Amino acid sequence: MNVESTVRRVAGFSVSILLVLCVLGSSGCASNRWIGREGFIAPDGIYVVHVPGIMGTLGHDQAFGIWLILSGAQDVTMFDWTGPIPLTNLTDTQRHERMARDLVAELHLLRKEHPSARIVVTSHSGGTRVAIRAAELLAEEAETAVEAAPPLVEQMWVIAAAVSPKYDLSAALQGVQQMYVIDSEHDWLILGLGTAVFGTADRDHVQSAGMVGFMYEDGSRLHKIHYDPWWRELDNSGGHLSALGRNFVKGVIGPIMLGRQPVWTPDSSADAPGVVDPRHARAETP
User: Fold this and answer.
1) Stretch 225-241: mean pLDDT, rounded?
2) Taking the model in full, what pTM does it have?
3) Does the structural domain 31-280 have CATH classification 1.10.3720.10?
């Protein structure tokens, strides 16, 4: 092998490693923000802030942001709240509190920059605790506001929550217009065994709400979306990352986000198992 060939191989390997790091890293090469529709800014478009899990912004989160834009979101920003140690991120309630307050500040800034935008917060795994706490803080702000106004966040998505099923969502629901919770009984390794051993984000050693569902019931703003076998048609097997996948976002999360009927079954029947009532697909202030 000559010198030129060796240099090419080393250079090619280095570029490959760099690309992998760009995709997996939470900062650096890979941007934490995307603007859809070829840079066209829609003042009343959907602006998403995504709160990732305890590992920080990884490749699946970045891909999730892209799928949201391809499904109709105007802009997606990654809110990386994590520190260097994943398991510490899971149960560090002081960090959760600080980062939830930072998230609220980020949402207010977004509203200031885009007064007529529709703001959506998506969250996954351990990041759902930060998102839920941010909703509680928004509700506290609303209580002291001089003028009544609809909640700042139109939709909050709580996906595969690493939170106790007993967690009381009543305060958080006052801080958002609509909350969609996705859980799966098949997420037994991370949200079953994992949180039973290492604890949930709210420090309870149980199977998480992202596996067994939240016990809290409220029909006006809370929409529980349990795993349905039909989702396999959308490449969702019910695993910890399945709800972040392209076809599931395109068929379920994206349509609901846009106020449309989600396509959950092969025949797209509104009476088929698992289909959300389309009247709940667009946030309404009660």
Assistant:
1) 95
2) 0.81
3) no
